[in-house]
Amino acid sequence: MQDHSEWGPSLNDYSDTFERRIQQSFAEYAKRQDILVSTGAKWVPLSTLETVLAISEHMYQLGFQAGGQIYTQIMASLREYSKIQGGDILKHYYGFICVRHLVHMISLGTVENSKKANAFLTKTPPSTPWTKASEQLSEAALELMFRAVAAEDMVTLFSIMGFVPVNPLVAFKGACDNGLTEEDAWFWIDVLWKSRKSIIFLRSKGLLHGLPVLLFVFYHITQYTNDVPTFQRPWLKIQDLVLRCYLSTTKDSDRQYLRQISQWIQDLVNGPKSPLTLDYQPVDDDDAREVVRAYNTLLSPPIPLSLAPVMLLDISITMFRWVYYMLTNPQPRRPALDELVPSATKAAFERLWLEIDRECDGLMVGARRGYTRMYAMDLIWLLSIYHKKSNNLPSQDALLKILFNLEIYSLIGRILMFVTWETGKHH
Description:
It contains 20 helices and 2 strands. By secondary structure, the chain is an all-alpha fold. α5 (93-113) packs across α7 and α15 runs parallel beside α18. The mean pLDDT is 88.
């Protein structure tokens, strides 16, 4: 196992040993029942940080406790660690422990501020495996947040997240009860985005299932920060992280929550007056391959019809744009990225065919016809741009073969038929 002294093992190693290490740390803590958190060093030692997380993960057995004091030390430690690492904080165990702690801390705070802690403990007996309890906690927190959004009660929403509202129509200022500040949130967004290459891998291992909780909080903090110009807000970074989370979940509830966050951001960055450009970039070629692999896996036939009403066409459009721009934005053009365009295109058209297949239950309703036409138009428009700008002949040939194998003429014919069904001046 590769170990980097105070930072612990690397990604491939700790992803396999995390659960065992946390279980061992908690067992050792249970024997001595004490822990020294205060430290004069620049960062909390890894062994201490690991024990604190182990205690937090087992709070459903020990009773909930506030985490603001330890958070300030973790935050200071993470800043020092990120200065040294410079890029992906998740490539070593230390950074992963910091992220995991923040997820758990915000989830705990949300449940407690909603006065739902006792109800959660009732549903989570001490015999529950700690990994399952942690997953249930983050799910409960996300559900409570979205429930407040559905009720259009932003004051309650920010209250359960621990923020103090100054004016619900203008901004929300002040630190969270758990110690998180607006400045911290911007810092977290940046370091997580720099660590985005590790997100799909870790979530596929079940180790960052609570990340959507953080993204929900970060989105709302940046939205209500009025002293920062719109084009300087890190919405595209959050969007990138949201879509990676979407590709690495199999739960419909997660997909619905992530779709909502994604569309909130899409409405902000894709409007006619938006000064932002969709400048998505992969970390490297391997990162792009992993994204396209996950995208292809999600939309690899046979696709169950049950996916269509969950992965609606709005998030489908957003996701293909994200993948497309990630592959075509880097300059100069990279052949390794061009080679991924055909398979990504196939996945995007498979999603369109899935929408057509839903007609087996009856004619497509008007709203879906409109979205289907828009989705098809978006795909064809982006592919036409790619054809004009790409000089990669093997990629263009592969793309042409894929389109024929997808029965593209039959597909476009059906879309044209939908257009004739639409009424009014917009058809």
